[in-house]
Amino acid sequence: MFIKLDGSGVLSQQIYHALRRAILAGQLAAGTRLPATRVLAHELGVSRNTVLLAYDQLLAEGYTVGQTGSGTYVATALPDVTLTPPEARVRAVSASEGTTLHLSAYGRRVVQNTSLPTPSAVPHCQPVHYDFRYGLPDGAAFPHETWRRLLARWARAVSVQELHYGPPEGYAPLRQAIASYLQRARAVVCEPEQIIVVNGSQQALDLTARVLLDAGDRVLIEEPHYQGARQVFLAAGAHLITVPIDAEGLVTTALPEAAAAARLVYVTPSHQFPTGAIMSLVRRLALLQWAETAEAYVLEDDYDSEFRYAGRPVEAVQGLDRSGRVIYVGTFSKVLFPALRLGYLVLPPPLVPLFTTAKWLADRHTSTLEQAVLTDFIHEGHFEHHLRRARTRNAARRAALLEALDTYLGTRVEVSGANAGVHLLVWLQDVAPRQLSALIDCAARVGVGLYPVAPYYLIPPPRAGLLLGYAALTEEEIRAGVQRLAAVLDHGEWRSATEYQKDGR
User: Fold this and answer.
1) Which residue from 9, 67, 69, 400 has the fewest beta carbons nearer than 10 Å?
2) Class for domain 11-102, per CATH?
3) What's the burial of 214, exposed, middle or buried (CB within 10 Å: 0-12/13-18/19+)?
4) Cα-flanking dihedrals φ and ψ of residue 473, to 5°?
5) Pairwise CA distance, residues 101 & 186, whole Å
6) How many Å apart are CA 244 and CA 224, to the nearest integer?
7) Would you list the domain boundaries of the chain?
8) Are 451 and 465 a contacting pair, CB within 8 Å?
9) Which residues have a Cβ under 8 Å from the Cβ of 430 and sit 6 or more positions away?
10) CB contact at 8 A, 235 and 114
């Protein structure tokens, strides 16, 4: 049996998705017997347990049925047809109605360059007790009762007028509160009129690309970098040029000549994503000088600058800007909770009306009720109180993770980005990149969720690296998770999954 793996995610998930696509597309008809797990494992060059995980998920979701002593068969009655993947639906429409799917250039670029992130690296049927997923705050520590009280107060008092369309640039009191906070906490130089409230930082990136970029325009991006930014720029048709990162952040001496006419440079200077490097003041000033000479904009993504554990906080690049070249992006999702889709742009004054219009075209305005609740949350001191508690808690968890890595893995790992943020980049010294998916699969079977760093590179790194988020785990869970990872590394079962590749089979 031939199935095509897409190369993204852990191996068991790739096998699951490939078989699911084949079932939904009719390539594997109802009643068809699937290959024995040992046979398919041999064909794909993976461990039998990896195939078993994929088969277990198909069985749990109703795509297959098991017959004792006979094998696994495609189910007669499949799950809801609305779960059919887009490519299968397109084929079905074309076959039944004789229609062809016509996409714009933008649509084709989206299809080619964007894949939606999976919720976890671990199959749904496998419980994850120690999930090191990046970007999850500690939901249990959020002051839910305070937020509910403020929300209820606004819901009871809301007027008919406040139920009408809001201003596209955002709720005025919230813009004032954000400006005041940024001035004292991040040394951002701005007035409320320069702020546009958006539905999370991802919309801020999308609006920036729509307003400033044409297809073919050059965009400089860090290597490695935030994958969501890369996909936005590629969807806009930009030509990406990577600039290397070292311990001091973006290597400004590697920026192209100003005459090269790049329109935009995207940076994460306060805590480079994903390496954790902090851009030095000398390089910040050099970046601003380059942008002024090149007449390019600097898109500063300050996604988790609130969390710094060693040394004095470094002011935002925007606060150093004297020529109006910096577009500053921030978000509340990382520090409060991800479902709160509230972020903001701080723009040079000439860009404000352009972005306001683009925001209006995109969705008219962001939810007024949530903006009003957040305004009170900030004004009454709950936001900064929550941040102080979160910093203390995250510092302790960071220390627990560093200690556990040293205790259980020692010289087998190299750690990057330990002084800020809510994740660490951990390079595995004894694991080859081609072995990492098998290692992640093995860790999943003992309840540890691991996530590779490779998707954040345009060119895959020569080493195997993991992105370990720790904000949503307790100190005890962090230690237990790392101990289990060490046991998986010691056991070596993950090595057998790559033996076929190693032997050239």
Assistant:
1) 69
2) mainly alpha
3) exposed
4) -110, 150
5) 48
6) 8
7) 11-102, 130-141+385-502, 144-382
8) no
9) 412, 489
10) yes
Model's pTM, two decimal places? 0.77
User: What is the fold of 130-141+385-502?
Assistant: Aspartate Aminotransferase, domain 1 (3.90.1150)
Q: What HEC string does 326-383 produce?
A: EEEEEECCCCCCCCCCCEEEECCHHHHHHHHHHHHHHHCCCCHHHHHHHHHHHHCCHH
* pLDDT averaged over 10-residue windows placed end to end, the chain, 505 residues: 71 86 84 86 84 84 79 79 47 50 84 65 62 87 94 87 87 97 93 97 96 95 94 95 94 86 93 91 95 95 78 83 96 89 96 96 93 96 93 92 96 85 91 92 93 92 94 95 95 64 41
Residue 493: name the closest of 415, 426, 451, 440 by CA. Answer: 440
Integer-rounded Cα radius of gyration of the chain: 25
Tokens of residue 172, six digits:
């005025």
Q: What is the pLDDT of residue 124?
A: 42
Q: Which residues contact 301 (CB under 8 A, 6 or more apart)?
A: 201, 205, 226, 229, 266, 267, 268, 273, 329
The C-alpha atoms of residue 326 and residue 319 are separated, in whole angstroms, by 9
pLDDT of residue 500: 40
In the numeric block, the tokens 């860790």 are attached to 443
Neighbours of 343 (CB within 10 A): 24
Residue 90 has what pLDDT?
A: 45
